[in-house]
Amino acid sequence: MIDFFFGLPVPVQALLKGIAVIGVIFPIAAACSMAERKVCAWIQSRSGPNRALPPIFAWIPGAGILQRLGVWQLMADGGKFVFKEEPLPDHVNKLYYTLAPVVAMVPAFTTVTVVPFGAYLGPGGRVIPLALANVDIGILAVFAVASLGVYSLILAGWASNSKYPFLGGVRASAQLISYELSMVLAVLPVFLWVNEPGTAGTLSLARVVEFQSRPGFWGGAWFLLTMPVSALVFAVALFAETNRQPFDMPESEADLVGGFHTEYGAFKWSLFFVAEYANMIVGSAVFALLFLGGWNLFPGISLARLLGGLHHLTGWALWLHPLVAGLASIAILLGKVLATIFVFMWIRWTVPRFRYDQVMRLGWQKLLPLSIANLIAYTIGIALLQR
Amino acid sequence: MDLITVNIDGRDVAVPKGTNMIEAARLLGIDVPHYCYHPKLTVAGNCRMCLVEMGTLAADPATKAPVMDPATGKQRVNWVPRPAIACATSAQPGLHIRTTTPMVRDCREGVMEFLLINHPLDCPICDQAGECKLQEQSTGYGRGYSRYVEHKNVKPKRTQLGPRVTLDDERCILCSRCVRFCKEIVKDDVLGFADRGSYSTLTCYPGRRLENDYSLNTVDICPVGALTSTDFRFKMRVWFLKQTNGIDTGSSVGANTVVWSREGAVYRVTPRRNDAVNDTWMADSGRILYKEVRAHGRLGTIRVNGAESALEFAVRAAAGILAKGGAAVVGSGRSSVEEQFLSRKLCDALGARASLVSRVGKGDGLLVSADRNPNVRGALVTGLVAALPSATLESLGAQIDSGQVTAVVSIGEDLAAAGLSAAQLARVSIVYLGTHANATSAAARVVIPTLTLFEKSGTLVNQQFRIQKFAKAVPGVAGATDDLLALARLTAAVGGPVLAEDVGPLWTQIAAEVPALGAVSFARIPDTGLLLDGTPWAGLPFAEGPTLHFVPAAPAPKEARP
Amino acid sequence: MAVIQVQRRALTLVERTYFPQLMGAMFTTLKHLLGPADTMEYPEQRPAIPAGYRGVPTLVKDPNGREKCVSCQLCEFVCPPKAIRITPGSVPEGAGIDQVEKAPQAFDIDMLRCIYCGLCEEVCPEEAIFLQNQYSMSGYSRSEMVNHKDRLYELGGTFPDRHFKWDVKKAAEARGGGHD
Asked: Which of A156, A387, B429, C40 is a plausible cystine mate for B321, CB 3.0–4.6 Å?
């Protein structure tokens, strides 16, 4: 089947990949929005949405449980977004107003393609990463494309021709620039370490996971353990980059009504949120790949060794089948991504929003010096270690 | 006047000799609670509520020399050790009264307790609640609970004393105001007390009923809820009612009234004290006049030739009818002075003659005079007519028959009732401004519904040539037009002057054009009325005989008291 | 007015990193996340109504089934939003309660105006109007939200009576007077 796929013309391949991205990320993003509502409700000691149940599905066993989890509510909401009236205010710049949600979607979905989401064991036990586009520049591509996301916010804020959206857009641009710097500087030590002398230089995320899959403590330890400061700075910057509370300055309801999306409604509005959740997913995946060992279940034990060990214990050849390894890796990485997203939500409903000056001070006066010091320290450390 | 000085609660007040102490205290703003005393009735002194401490200036019995008090340097006061009733104590030089001492308070509390022993305390169902003297004094002098453990008296309830008065004997405190009123004012002595002690019961003389035309005054003066109006019974609590000053339009006496209304509905009419006109009384016949406001047959649609129309078109149609000439105006002795003034302006504009319809009945010598039109003198004063009206419109009928008159404006008068035949009505085009449907409105080409006297403000001139104000109590019914508006528009439409459509501005025009009212302005007419100079009309043979506070100037036709 | 200046304690280095507080807060929210919901699933679950609750005002009858209201209109008078409208009337002849004399012909409470203040209950001299346990009123039109007399008695039911004052009065009338 894989051969058949690779036999197809390249544009068709690209089209299929694109459809796959939309088909996977859209539902996950939507599910995340429902998960957010449920987590919010539970944290606030409420039940959350648990009422919707179309009568035609009521007979399905387990429909009640889905009802309690708000799954039907999610579908109702989705249906509503699709079918409700699309408002187009008179005072907006029609072209850019319509364009902004699309611009929001593009970087969100594009970054997905370069993030490896699993791996399978190739011939000779070699780990081959699963990615739509396993490009060598990996992390650079993610950063480069993801930073385009801010354009949609600025565009939305400006095209709305209204005060609050405009303020939201301005805040978004300043905030994203501030934190992008720290984010990149925080990641650099990881690649300094990964690109050992004598190996081919790469920025590939798969290579980072591979590095964390090596035997031995120093070899296989997750970077979260060996580079906690980097992980921390990256995580904080990730919150800011994805506009999540406590950094959701651009849409801060208390002072900006709805921020950049004040003038938006219906499907266009929902696109912003799909984009936000897609960004979260990608960000979480990158975090998991860089700092949480990617598709390795435990630190110090690579997935290949884990499967080999299981084969050794049970004697089933099944464990060594490439498909099993692939599915296991996807499941493990997805688990880590979802756990990270849960932490995102958990923090959102725990921590109050910062003031804007606090956001700026944290970004420029705390995180940036910290990441620079971190970089210098690790540069020296790595230089000594790998001499 | 012979003024003497008395001292009440340490304050001197000069009053005419013989004034009783309740009235003297009232001059100082001191309230002496009382039940049986009524300023317009004889003093009975049986309720004992007005007990006060009394004292006289001390004098040496032998030399009659004043005894001075060395402490104050003033003449000493000898206080009488037991209390006296203020209502039966008349002012004499040097009289001293104390109304706030502990003893007076004790007296009042004791009297209240006795009065309440057998009182049923059914205020929730009692119509007097809210204007009940027992309730009022209970707040000041009541105990709050009863020490009386025996059963309360049971007396007749829901007794119909007459066609208009219901009696609840249990509530009666035996003050005898009603008995004295019937005896002294109406001279129809039908009420009295039967039995003795706690069995005492107010009742009618056997075989008689309280059915004179002043029976409802007993309800007004009853300090408790014993006598209640059958008409007003259980209709509305008095605290909801808005009070508006009115004038009784039942006859030319012009008794002052209070109109009690709530949310556009009149509930009752009671007399308002005016010592120069009606004291505190009014006739029962005047109290039911409010029913005309919501009566069946009230006009509510402007009609032109039978079709529904609007004021503008109706006025235009009326002007078209009247412009052909041969117009006559039938004014009304029931209209206000303002309307009569506008009617005169309409006559002037049309060059027409105004007729009035007189309503002469039998006066009762008290508060119903022979002339049942309340405002014939207003028509004289404003110049609408120069002579007294006749009972029928014979001369107008003759003019119609001869073809001299082809159009008639009737301002609230039913021409058929005034003696015109159906054939005569059919010969003329009629413009009718009135409140209720009748033969004239049915025959009229143009009908403009107008307001009753409860729905508008204005003035009336009574038999004494006293101009008295009445105020709008309730808003006009839907579809009715203010008389002043309709008349002013009509006058302007037939080529007359532009006149004010509201009472206030209209009065500047009235004062400018009517000599007798030159010095009068509507706002400055006091609530008790303003006496006009009636001498220009002194020679006219007015129908009224003597009534309360009124003696006819000219020898009136013979009239006997009933 | 004295102003008390409170000196804020300087934060320690650990506190300034923000992390202990963040962790503490996240622990608190986690406890709530795992704990039971404090809310109630309303139409299926109903809250227990405490004594003295001020719900929908109703008219009550005494244990003998007599309507207690005598239409004194004090509630209409005291009602701050003017939600109550009473048309007074007489007790119909031969109902066996002639001694009461007065009863409402019509008694309307506009629940769109009612503010559930309970003043009507407090002012009632006959203990005829009570704010009872019903708290949910709904309707499709304004007129549906006006409770008429029948509805008010239906909602109110029968209440115990400590006085039976009108029955005492009736007995006295039957006995023929207080001089026994």
From this structure: B429
Q: In what order do the strands lie in the sheet with C102-110?
A: C84-90, C102-110, C146-147
ipTM: 0.82
Given B201, B234, B267, which residue is the final one in a domain? B234
B503 shares a domain with B381? yes
Spans of all domains in chain A: 89-385
- Asked if C29 lies within 8 A of A46 by C-beta distance, the reply is no
- Number of Cβ within a 10 Å radius of residue A228: 12
Kindly report the CATH number assigned to the domain that includes residue B54: 3.10.20.740
**How many residues in total does chain A contain?**
387
**Going along B338-387, which residue ranges are E strands?**
354-355
Q: Cβ A45–C37 below 8 Å, yes or no?
A: yes
Residue B547 lies in a domain: no
Q: What is the pTM of this model?
A: 0.76
Query: Domain of C140?
Result: 57-166
Determine the Cα–Cα distance for residues B306 and B308; give it in Å rounded to an integer. Answer: 7
Residue B392, domain CATH: 3.40.50.740
Residue C165 CB-density burial (10 A; 0-12 exposed, 13-18 middle, 19+ buried): middle
Peptide bond connecting B66 to the previous residue in cis, omega within 30 degrees of 0:
no
Nearest-CA distance B139 → chain C (Å): 16
Q: CA A256: distance to chain centroid?
A: 26
Residue B199 carries which DSSP code? Answer: G
- Cβ proximity of A308 and A141 under 8 Å: no
pLDDT in tens, B439-486: 999 999 999 999 999 999 999 999 999 999 999 999 999 999 999 999
- How far is Cα A3 from Cα A258, in angstroms, rounded to an integer? 49
Among candidates B123, B152, B235 on the partner chain, residue whose Cβ is nearest the Cβ of C178:
B152
The amino acid that residue B172 corresponds to is C
Res. C180: pLDDT tops 50: no
Collect all residues of chain A within an 8 Å Cβ-Cβ radius of residue C30. 346
Q: d(Cα B412, Cα B335) in Å, to the nearest integer?
A: 8
Taking each helix axis as running N to C, give the angle between helix A138-146 and helix A266-291, from 0 to 180 degrees, rounded to the nearest 10.
150
SS3 of chain A: CHHHHHHCCHHHHHHHHHHHHHHHHHHHHHHHHHHHHHHHHHHCCCCCCCCCCCHHHCCCCCHHHHHHCCHHHHHHHHHHHHHCCCCCCCCCCHHHHHHHHHHHHHHHHHHHHHCCCEEEECHHHCEEEECCCCCCCHHHHHHHHHCCHHHHHHHHHHHCCCHHHHHHHHHHHHHHHHHHHHHHHHHHHHHHHHCCCCCCCCCCHHHHHHHHCCCCHHHHCCHHHHCHHHHHHHHHHHHHHCCCCCCCHHHCHHHHCCHHHCCCCHHHHHHHHHHHHHHHHHHHHHHHHHHCCCCCCECCECHHHHHHHHHHHHCCHHHHCHHHHHHHHHHHHHHHHHHHHHHHHHHHCCCCCCCHHHHHHHHHHHHHHHHHHHHHHHHHHHHHHCC
Distance from CA of A341 to the nearest CA of C (A): 15
Paired residues of B57 in beta bridges: B77
Q: Residues with Cβ < 8 Å from B46, sequence gap 6 or more? A: B36, B174, B175, B176
> Which amino acid does the sequence have at B133?
K
DSSP string, B228-252: EETTTTTT--GGGPEEEEEE--SST
The verdict on B235 touching C (C-beta cutoff 8 Å) is yes
pLDDT higher than 50, residue B556: no
Specify whether B373 is located in the same domain as B512.
yes
pLDDT tens for A250-286 read 777 778 877 788 888 888 888 888 888 888 888 888 8
- Whether the pLDDT of residue A69 is over 60: the answer is yes
- Smallest Cβ–Cβ distance between C41 and the set A42, A47, A347 belongs to A47
CA–CA gap between residue B148 and residue B393 (Å, rounded): 69
What CA–CA distance (Å, rounded) separates C174 from A153? 89
